[in-house]
Amino acid sequence: MKPLALALSILCLAGEAQAQAPTAPTETSSLPSDEELTALLEGLTMTAPEAYELGVRLFEAKRYEGAERAWMRSHALSPNPALLVAIADTRQRRGDEPGTVAMLERYLTERPDAPDKLSVEARIATLLKTPATVVVRSDEEGHAILVDGKPIDKKTPAEIELAPGAHTLIVVGDGQHVGEKSVQVGYGERKELVFTAATPSEPVVEEAEPEDDFEQEERTARRAVWALSGVSAAALLTGTILGFTALKQEESYRNNPTLETADKGKRLALFADVSFGIAALSAITALTVFLTTKNKKKRREQDTARLRFETRGPGAAATFRF
Q: According to the model, what pLDDT value does residue 301 have?
C-alpha cells in the first residue's frame, strides 16, 4: 500500500513541474526590441555574420527598418556590396524610392564590375519614373480639383499621381475658390495637402516661359513661307526675262540663221523653263506649308480648354471655356 501511495505522489509532482515549465520562445518573440537592437548593434562583441543573420530574421518578420540597421552594421564591420542591394529592398518595401535609388547607385559605385549591373541600372531607371502621390483633402468632400490649371475626374478626398516637379493645385467647391497651393514633388514621394476655408491662395510668381514647340514650329513655318515665296518670285522674274531674251534670239536666228545663234536660243529657252519650274515648285511648297500650319493651329485652338477665374465677393468662380 505504501509503495503505491509513494508512486502516485511522484507522478503528481512531475505533472505539476511540467505544467510550470516555461514554453520555448517563438522565432518572432525572440527578436530584440528597437532599444535592444540598438544596444546589440552598438556592442563591441557583434560580428558581421551575426549582424547579417539578425537582419535576415528581422526582414522575415517584416521589420524592414531594423533589418536595414542590422545589414548596415554588418556592411560596416565587413564591407560587402551585395548587402547594399538587400538594404535597397528594405527601403523599397517601405515606399522609399529615393532611398532605394541612392543605395543601388552606391552598390554600382562600390562594385563597378557587378555582374547584375544592367538589371540594377534598369531597376534604377524604372524607379526614377515612379510618380509622386499627393493626397488632397478639404473640409467638405466632393470639391473639384484642378492640377496645373486643368480639371481632373477625382474629387476630394483623393490621391493624385503627379510627375516629379512643381505643380499648382486648386480646389473649387460650389462655385467658390477654396484655395490654391503650389507643391514640389520628387519621384516616389508622398505628400498631403489640406484645403480649408481659411486656406489662402498662394500666388505663384512665374517668369516668362519660353515658347512651346508649336509656337517655334509656327515661327519657323512663317519664315519658310516667306523664303519660298521670295524664291518663287525671283525664279518667275528670271524665267520671264530669259523667255523674252530667248524669243529675241529666235527672231535673230530667223534673220541670220547660224549654228551659234541656234544654240544660244536653245540654252536661253531651257534656262527659262527651269526658272519657271523652280518658281512653280517653290510656290506650291510655300502654299503647302502655309495651309498645314494653319490647320494645325486651328486644331490646337479647338483642343485647348481655357480656364478663367473671376473674383466674385469673397470667393472666385471657375469658368471653363472650350
A: 63
